[in-house]
Each structure stands twice: as C-alpha cells, then as structure tokens.
C-alpha cells in the first residue's frame, strides 16, 4: 500500500512540477522517472541505495547495482530541482532539501534515509 501511495505522490509531484513547463521539458523527464521507479524501489528495498538529505539517491555500500539507473534518476532530479527553483525564485539546493523531507516522510519501512545532520538511518 505504501508503494502505491509513494507512486501516486511521485506522479503528483511531477505533474505539479511540470504544470507550467513546456512538453519538451516535462514529458520526457516524467516518463523516464516513472519508468525507473519500480527498479529503484527494488534497490531501496534491498538496502543498496537510500535517499540522502539533498533529495538525491545515494549508494549505501560497496555494491553499485543499478548505477546507471541511479545516475540517470539523479540527473533528472537535478533538472527538476533547477526548474522548480527558477520558478519559485530559490535555489536548486533548497528545493532538493525540501524534497528530501517529503521523500523521508513517505518512505517505506526499512528504506535508508539521511537526516539533516548527515546520519543514515532505516525507517
């Protein structure tokens, strides 16, 4: 059930983020992020990756399983955060930090998260 709620939240976030964007910017990113979500959720469930306090995915150990997916997701998140920051008159860093809080609140039990002080914990 939490995964459905999380997926719905991601969809709402993306729709909101791209509501005023041109189709060339928003649609491609939205589709890519949605297509990666199931694989990223599996990596989170295995404890291979976690959500850091800047709104990006980060590897938790030596395994780099799914590195291409993680890199692509983080690159798309960076573009989304920059776009939102421009529209809101703030910085991409602040947008990412705010997003990290949202992601932590909605994370499934057992997923790794990083608190504001940089310490990792499992929800």
From TrEMBL:
Lineage top rank: taxon: Bacteria
Under the heading InterPro entries, the entry gives:
YdbL (IPR008309)
From the UniProt annotation, give the residues forming the signal peptide. Answer: 1-21
**Keywords of this entry:** Signal
- Name of the molecule in the record: DUF1318 domain-containing protein
Source species? Desulfatibacillum alkenivorans DSM 16219
């Amino acid at each position: 059930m939490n995964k459905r709620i999380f997926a719905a939240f991601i969809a709402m976030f993306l729709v909101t983020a791209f509501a005023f964007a041109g189709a060339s910017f928003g649609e491609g990113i939205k589709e890519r992020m949605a297509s990666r979500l199931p694989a990223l959720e599996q990596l989170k469930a295995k404890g291979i990756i976690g959500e850091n306090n800047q709104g990006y995915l980060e590897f938790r150990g030596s395994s780099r399983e799914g590195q291409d997916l993680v890199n692509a997701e983080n690159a798309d998140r960076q573009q989304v955060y920059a776009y939102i920051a421009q529209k809101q008159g703030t910085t991409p860093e602040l947008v990412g930090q705010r997003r990290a809080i949202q992601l932590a609140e909605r994370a499934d039990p057992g997923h790794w998260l990083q608190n504001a002080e940089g310490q990792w914990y499992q929800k």
